[in-house]
C-alpha cells in the first residue's frame, strides 16, 4: 500500500476528529445564542467578549469535573457506553465527502477518508449501532428512570431507522449506487434529487423528519426529555463521560446534515470553490434548522411519535418506493 496514501488517511482522520470535536463545542455556543435570540434573552455574555470563552469554560469544566461511578452500576458497560456514542458518530464520517478534491503543493487531496462503494449503507449501519450507547448506559446505571429513558430511546431509534432506510431507497433506485460521490456526480449532471424528481422531494422530507429522531433533537427529544427532572439515560454520568454523549449528539447533527446536503441537495456540485462553499452553507442551514426547531416546537409524547412513524411516515415511504419502481419500469 502506498505510504503517501496511509499518511494522507491518518491526517484526514485526525483532522475530522479535531475539527468536529471542536465544532461540537462551538455548536453549543451557537445553540445558546440562537435560542436566546429567539426567546429574547442574551445567552452567554460574561465569559469573554460576547461569551465566546464560554466554550473553553465548558471544556475545562468537563475535563476537570470529578468522574463519579455510582455504586451498583455495571461498571464496564457503564464506562464503555459513552465511548460507543461518540465513536460511532465519528466512524460514520469515514464515508462522507466533506469537500471536493483539491490540489495543494502539487498533491491532490480527496476530502473523504474512505470512498467505499457502499458508503450510504455503511453510514446508516454505523449510526444505527450508536443507539447502543444510550441503551447500554441506561441499562447499566442501576436507575429505573435511566432504564425507561434508554428503552424509550431505543424504540424511537429503531422505528425511525425504518423510515430513514425507506426514504433513501428512492435516490438509490434512481442513481443505482451507494457511494456518496456518485450521488454528487449524478446531481451535478441531472439536478438536485429533492427537486428534479417528485418522489425525491417526498424522500427528502421523510429523511429530514427522521433525522430529528436519529439525532434525538426537538421535537423528538424523548431520549433525555428536557421536561423531566432527570437527564434520562445520562442521569448517573458526570464529567467527560457525560461530555462524550454530548459530543456524539452534536457530531451526529453535523454528519447527518452533510448526508442530507449530498444525497438530496446536490452536494458540492461541479467541485468548484463555489460548490464547496454551497455545500458548507447547506450544512449550516440544516444545523441552524435543528436549533430553530428546538426554539419553536414543543416535544411530542412518545405515543404521538410512534403514531407518526408507523401510521404516517412509514406507509408514505413505502408508497413512495413503489411509485418510484413503477415509474422507472416505464
TrEMBL record:
Q: Which UniProt keywords apply?
A: Cell membrane, Membrane, NAD, Oxidoreductase, Quinone, Translocase, Transmembrane, Transmembrane helix, Ubiquinone
Function comment: NDH-1 shuttles electrons from NADH, via FMN and iron-sulfur (Fe-S) centers, to quinones in the respiratory chain. The immediate electron acceptor for the enzyme in this species is believed to be ubiquinone. Couples the redox reaction to proton translocation (for every two electrons transferred, four hydrogen ions are translocated across the cytoplasmic membrane), and thus conserves the redox energy in a proton gradient. This subunit may bind ubiquinone.
Would you tell me the protein name for this molecule?
Answer: NADH-quinone oxidoreductase subunit H
Magnesium as a keyword of this entry, yes or no, is: no
What is the membrane topology noted in the UniProt record heading this document?
Answer: Multi-pass membrane protein
Record's catalysed reaction(s): a quinone + NADH + 5 H(+)(in) = a quinol + NAD(+) + 4 H(+)(out)
**KW Amino-acid biosynthesis (keyword) present:** no
Assembly state and interactors?
NDH-1 is composed of 14 different subunits. Subunits NuoA, H, J, K, L, M, N constitute the membrane sector of the complex.
- Pfam family example for this protein? NADHdh
Q: Where is the signal peptide?
A: none
